[in-house]
Amino acid sequence: MNNVAVPQRHLPxxxxxxxxxxxxxxxxxxxxxxxxxxxxxEDDIKDGKYELRAELPGVDPDKDVDITIRNGILTIKAExxxxxxxxxxxxxxxxxxxxxxxLPAGADEEGIKATYDKGILNVSVPVNEAEAPGKHVTIESAx
Length: 143
Hints:
Belongs to the small heat shock protein (HSP20) family. By secondary structure, this protein is mainly β. Helices cover 9% and strands 41% of the residues.
């Protein structure tokens, strides 16, 4: 069988079907921990800062989370592995995430700060209030 690279597709904005099924006890154990799920984020601009909150429960932020900024794109990568043992039986759950967001115009990439508390990653980026003036482009008619 040939190994064929499959291009990544963009994840829909609707929740994954397994999130709807998570309320059913018989199916909740089938829901993967991280595999195939984007990092859930909330973001807002207030008080001159772009604030992003990401749900990352069960990770060690020092070892398992990487935040980078390149060309106005903030990228969060997280990896998680968990091992549970009981009565001579062990279970493993593992997976990785990547989530990228475009920073707003005027974002000060040098002033970024990140904190992690109780499974929530908070990223704060100062935003300069002054907007760059737009440029008017003249349209030339074809003759």
